[in-house]
Q: What sequence folds into this?
């Protein structure tokens, strides 16, 4: 039985993961972490105990799944570093300093980090790289449009940035990312990837990578219809990571 510590257990994704793990036979959540457990209207929904801080946790775990927020990441990074506890890091919107800290900790702890836990999105990342290489020097411009619900805090999404990075890494052109053209009246430069963010309603997650050429457009898309796909990916990642040696891993290793 794989024992899981769930950081951000009271958030939308934490609840989906809790429901999912209840129905698997080889995994159990032994404790959760979420600041909201101290709110007056908090009522436990699951059998596991919920702590305000990782440093209050009494239970022993084999792996930690983090679906929290950028502001809560530092605590779980220190806890996993101290405990040498493998960490599936699903939180997006991390700063450059935080990403550097993650890389440093991975020298002594197994960390799997992905901008998106969906298997389909990770396949899309590979397809974007292949398309970029195939269309290079053929006058195709790259634009990315991402859409999410109106409660998402970061923009653009971590997945949109990962898609741009996938194109950038596959190309001989050093692309620059443009997040707004409102303050510029100029022709679109060749070495630019435009990234647009839409926030509205209950959109779970949609990403379009547009390759716009002369008289033709190729669009690679992924649409998420429920948060379940991210939960399934996180659980698969935890199952993969819990007995791995220290190092940095990604969903490509899980596929």
A:
């Amino acid at each position: 039985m794989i024992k899981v510590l769930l950081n951000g257990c009271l958030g939308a994704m934490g609840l989906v993961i809790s429901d999912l793990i209840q129905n698997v036979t080889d995994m159990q959540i032994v404790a959760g972490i979420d600041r909201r457990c101290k709110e007056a209207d908090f009522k436990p929904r699951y059998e596991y105990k919920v702590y305000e801080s990782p440093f209050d946790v009494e239970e022993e775990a084999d792996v930690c799944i983090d679906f929290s927020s950028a502001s809560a990441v530092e605590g779980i990074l220190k806890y996993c570093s101290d405990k040498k506890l493998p960490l599936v890091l699903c939180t997006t919107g991390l700063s450059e300093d935080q990403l550097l800290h993650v890389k440093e900790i991975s020298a002594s702890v197994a960390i799997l980090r992905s901008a998106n836990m969906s298997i389909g999105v990770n396949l899309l990342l590979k397809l974007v790289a292949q398309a970029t290489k195939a269309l290079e020097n053929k006058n195709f411009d790259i634009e990315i449009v991402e859409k999410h619900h109106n409660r998402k805090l970061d923009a653009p999404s971590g997945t949109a940035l990962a898609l741009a990075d996938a194109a950038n890494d596959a190309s001989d052109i050093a692309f620059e990312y443009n997040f707004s053209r409102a303050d510029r009246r100029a022709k679109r430069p060749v070495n630019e990837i435009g990234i647009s963010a839409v926030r509205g309603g209950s959109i779970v997650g949609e990403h379009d990578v547009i390759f716009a050429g002369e008289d033709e457009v190729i669009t690679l898309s992924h649409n998420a219809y429920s948060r379940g796909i991210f939960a399934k990916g996180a659980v698969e990642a935890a199952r993969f990571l819990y007995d791995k040696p220290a190092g940095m891993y990604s969903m490509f290793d899980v596929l």
